[in-house]
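Supplementary Methods S3. Complex input for the adenosine monophosphate-bound model.
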Amino acid sequence: MKVLVLNSGSSSLKFQMYKMENEKVLAKGIVERIGLDKPVLKYERHDGVKLQETIAVKNHDDALRLICQKLVDPEQGVMKSLCEVEAVGHRVVHGGEKVSQPVKVDEGVKAIIRDCCSLAPLHNPPNLSGIEACEHVFKGTPNVAVFDTAFHQTMPAESYLYAIPYEYYTKYGIRKYGFHGTSHKFVANSTAEFLKTPMEKLKLITCHLGNGCSVAAINGGNVLDTSMGLTPLMGLVMGTRCGDIDPGVLLHLSKLGMKTEEIDALLNKKSGILGVAGINSSDMRDLEHAVQEGKAQAKQAMDMFIHRLVFYVGAYHTLLGGADAVVFTGGIGENSEFVRGLIVPRLEAIGCRLDNAANHKAVRGKAGVISTPESTLKAVVMPTNEELMIARETVRVLRGA
Ligand code: AMP
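Predicted complex, serialized as structure tokens:
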């Protein structure tokens, strides 16, 4: 069974073609700069065949048609006909309160995605364009929407409500939704398998640390709380996002004369590591180098990153009434021995002690425990794979599970 996974952004369309019998990626790639000058297609086949072409595409329909041409190309492709694709799985960022599971796309589901455009204006419109492009190109092939917010829908009201007048929730849907749900679910499942313990018996704190960062407290497979909010701006210090901030700061900036769009850009695109570290970069690798070179402002940014993460892990440990494991994933969580080496020693008070050798040996792409055997709270490194999760969920929905 072949499943195509799509992740469409405002000017990009990422794809992975899976053979589900062995979960092998047959081909993957991206069309970038859709609707801009010099769009480019990057394509990679499982056997190492790689190409990059400048192409002419005006919209997501054009981009998908080009991807499909490559997938069935006699020389560079991976199948004879598009009919071999049994379903397309789509990453959709916001499903609001109406979806708590991946779903087969119909007009009702499209209406939900459309309704949530005001909550995710940068993501939901292109996600919908990706689905509509598939409806045009793959006539009759089922589309499945896998929502970033869905896994977090188990949160209780005391976690997701903001303490503002209740009608702002009922009338406008202003509440915490949480994001990165597909990744949190994937690593929670993988951790349960890795620890050979059923998910229902596990209490986990999953830390997705990439360009965007979020933490989730998961009790028996249900999310109890998560650090992102109405938008992906809340919570941890991130590459360019500020995370938690006194809402009074926004009022103050507004009184200083800043416009809404300027405040939006400041908090979403110019803050976090980029805003604090003084290294003109939001990349954790650059921050690590700068810290190792002894740059004081960079150390300040790193200290803030670690402090905020320790704060959340400690709080979630208490909310869960103790936990079995804290799990690190995402570009930083999976790859940065340095960052893990700063966080885990700060968790000793809650029973987690770093095993330096295990942290050093942790290999990218492989699960591993980096805490000492005596630790009552395990520290686990777990690779995430949102595309594979979307492919698996797509199959599950098709089979009616
Ligand atoms: P992601 O959004 O999951 O792709 O993660 C991107 C982040 O991971 C960036 O901040 C990268 O600097 C960081 N990252 C990737 N590889 C490493 C590495 N080897 N060491 C430290 N950070 C890394």
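The chain has two domains: 2-147, 197-381. Residues 210-211, 239, 283-285, 288, 330-332, 335-336 surround adenosine monophosphate (CB under 6 Å).
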